């Protein structure tokens, strides 16, 4: 995905109030990163496919009261107060809100589909999400669609993430919910009848 830092309309770091007042733009995804506007192209088809399929897998296994949502704006603290994770799991009633708060996020997921997005997802966003006490964060790596990977970040008692090494294939997890994720199924083209 093409990513570009953009000056705010005022030419200085953007405030949350200025960001929230921006007109809706369906051509790009907008976030605040380190006080600056970050403009990202909408997900390309392989990225979008992975998000849709992950949503289906996760939602089929979540307990009552929880739901996985795609591209919901998240309200964070710090210098990057507006992010749009590819997938978040939160209470079902967040559908009544304009954005999800960090304290409502049970799981945030980013899909890395290029080297540039990988740097941001594995490093920058991991630090931001840990600082906002998001207990569970995943990065799904689609850079090599023949070997889709999952790296799991779990908040520890030092307020940093413990990182579980990259896994491939089918992964069974117990936190934040019992889930089994078929990583291979996230990337392949849809087949007839499937």
From TrEMBL:
<dbReference type="InterPro" id="IPR008538">
    <property type="entry name" value="Uma2"/>
</dbReference>
<keyword id="KW-0255">Endonuclease</keyword>
<dbReference type="Pfam" id="PF05685">
    <property type="entry name" value="Uma2"/>
</dbReference>
<dbReference type="GO" id="GO:0004519">
    <property type="term" value="F:endonuclease activity"/>
</dbReference>
<keyword id="KW-0378">Hydrolase</keyword>
<dbReference type="InterPro" id="IPR012296">
    <property type="entry name" value="Nuclease_put_TT1808"/>
</dbReference>
<dbReference type="InterPro" id="IPR011335">
    <property type="entry name" value="Restrct_endonuc-II-like"/>
</dbReference>
<feature type="domain" description="Putative restriction endonuclease">
    <location>
        <begin position="17"/>
        <end position="178"/>
    </location>
</feature>
<protein>
    <submittedName>
        <fullName>Uma2 family endonuclease</fullName>
    </submittedName>
</protein>
<keyword id="KW-0540">Nuclease</keyword>
């Amino acid at each position: 995905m093409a990513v570009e830092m953009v000056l705010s309309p005022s030419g200085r770091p953007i405030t949350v109030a200025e960001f929230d007042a921006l007109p809706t733009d369906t051509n790009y995804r907008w976030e605040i990163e380190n006080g600056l506007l970050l403009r990202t192209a909408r997900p390309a088809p392989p990225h979008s496919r992975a998000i849709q399929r992950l949503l289906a897998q996760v939602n089929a296994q979540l307990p009552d009261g929880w739901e996985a949502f795609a591209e919901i704006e998240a309200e964070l603290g710090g210098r990057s107060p507006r992010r749009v994770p590819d997938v978040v799991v939160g209470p079902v009633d967040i559908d009544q809100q304009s954005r999800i708060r960090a304290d409502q996020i049970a799981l945030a997921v980013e899909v890395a589909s290029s080297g540039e997005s990988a740097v941001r997802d594995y490093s920058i966003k991991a630090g931001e999400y840990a600082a906002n006490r998001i207990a569970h964060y995943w990065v799904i790596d689609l850079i090599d669609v023949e070997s889709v990977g999952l790296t799991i970040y779990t908040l520890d008692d030092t307020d940093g993430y413990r990182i579980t090494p990259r896994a491939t294939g089918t992964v069974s997890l117990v936190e934040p919910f019992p889930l089994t994720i078929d990583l291979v199924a996230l990337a392949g083209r849809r087949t007839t009848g499937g």
